[in-house]
Specification:
The chain is an alpha+beta fold. It has 2 domains: 88 residues; 233 residues, Bira Bifunctional Protein, Domain 2 (BirA Bifunctional Protein, domain 2), CATH 3.30.930.10. The chain is 38% helix and 19% strand. It contains 11 helices and 10 strands. Strands 1-5-6-10-9-8-7 form a 7-stranded mixed sheet. Strands 2-4-3 form a 3-stranded antiparallel sheet. A hairpin with an 8-residue loop joins strand 3 and strand 4. Helix 1 packs parallel to helix 4, helix 2 packs antiparallel against helix 4 and helix 5 crosses helix 10. The longest helix has 33 residues. It is elongated, with a radius of gyration of 38 Å. It starts with a helix and ends with a helix. Bound molecules: adenosine-5'-[phenylalaninyl-phosphate].
């Protein structure tokens, strides 16, 4: 039996050393190691032998099998290497490369990141809230009762208006995040909250039905309008990369008292007066004010314990000023000629 094994093995190795193709390797593998091979027959018949013989023959058969396998592998490698077509695989390093097309962040995301960076650098936290809101957070808790005429200011997309008590809507501003945050956190804190807002209004070069705002909210026991103005000046000077002055004009928003229109000195003329600012030296940016105590109470704080300021600015409007973009509708137009410029 031993000599039979050696004989098969030697025959196999000799045949393997003459192969020329991968198919031949495959055939020999089948012939010598396959299910019907002589080796398999020997291994199958082991059960008829004595214990002593089983051990001995089994061992030699396995060693011979291993040697055949190694030879098959060796010749397979030799065939692969000799078939390798070096000519067609040659790399011509003088051919100019093809530039890969890479996407990049949309200008609005870039501006949003920039704003978040400046504010987190001043110790602010970034807070988030849902785009589909309840009437409670978007209006009621912000001191805008159901029959209050100020609601008309925010043309609202309602969801299933006939539904029960707390109507759902697409938030018209980022101010509801103020309430959501205050319900869960105790002062002092400072947050900003950038996010998408929706208004059912006709679009033009400065109005979109879907746009971004970013809210700021600072609450503590001794927060004043002076802090508010200073932080505004710091932020806008960093954002526009030049010294910016802030001006507050009296205005009305139900959730702040006093309320302000927030202006910054004109980016073109620094306040001297030019065409961009219609000669008055200032640009209007958005609403702001000291948080109305009713809003604190609606959020679960005691009346008159805390003071805070808040503002809500349009992100597209800021991007338009910074990058001299003339029409807000370009942001969501999907026009690659526009998108690729930034
Ligand atoms: C508000 O939405 C208030 N929530 C802002 C606020 C927050 C006041 C905190 C006081 C305290 P207003 O409706 O004015 O306010 O919108 C604020 C800014 O959002 C505007 O100045 C403008 O920059 C931007 N904005 C409003 N409507 C649109 C629109 N349709 N398209 C693009 N930007 C808009």
């Amino acid at each position: 039996m031993q000599s039979k094994i050696i004989e098969i093995k030697n025959k196999a190795i000799e045949e393997i050393s003459e192969v020329k193709t991968k198919e031949e390797i495959f055939d020999l593998e089948k012939k010598y190691l396959g299910r019907n091979s002589e080796f398999n027959q020997i291994l199958k018949n082991l059960k008829n032998l004595s214990e002593e013989e089983k051990k001995e023959i089994g061992k030699s058969a396995n060693l011979a099998k291993k040697e055949i396998e190694d030879n098959l592998k060796k010749y397979e490698r030799i065939i692969s290497e000799s078939n390798f077509d070096f000519q067609s695989e040659k790399i011509d390093i003088t051919i100019p490369g093809k530039r890969k097309k890479r996407g990049h962040l949309n200008i609005l995301s870039q501006v949003r990141n920039e704003i978040e960076d400046i504010f987190t650098g001043m110790g602010f936290e970034v807070a988030d809230g849902p785009e589909v809101e309840t009437e409670h957070y978007n209006f009621d808790a912000l001191n805008i009762p159901k029959d209050h005429p100020a609601r008309d200011e925010w043309d609202t997309f309602w969801i299933k208006p006939e539904e029960k008590l707390d109507h759902m809507l697409l938030r018209t501003h980022t101010s509801p995040v103020q309430i959501r945050y205050m319900e869960k956190n105790e002062p002092p804190f400072r947050i900003i909250s950038p996010g998408k807002c929706f208004r059912r209004e006709a679009t033009d070069s400065t109005h979109e039905h879907t746009f971004y705002q970013f809210e700021a909210l600072v609450v503590g026991e001794d927060v004043s309008v002076a802090n508010f103005k200073y932080i505004g000046e710091q932020f806008f000077s960093k954002f526009f990369n030049k010294d910016i002055k802030v001006r507050l004009r009296p205005s009305f928003f139900p959730f702040v008292e006093p309320g302000f229109e927030f202006d910054i000195s004109c980016l073109m003329c620094s306040g001297k007066g030019c065409r961009a600012c219609k000669n008055n030296g200032w640009l209007e940016l958005g609403g702001a004010g000291m948080v109305n105590q009713n809003v604190f109470v609606a959020s679960g704080y005691p009346r008159n314990k805390y003071q805070g300021f808040a503002w809500g600015f349009g992100l597209e409007r800021l991007a338009m000023m910074k990058y001299k973009i003339s029409d807000i509708r370009l942001f969501h137009s999907g026009d690659l000629r526009f998108i690729k410029q930034f």
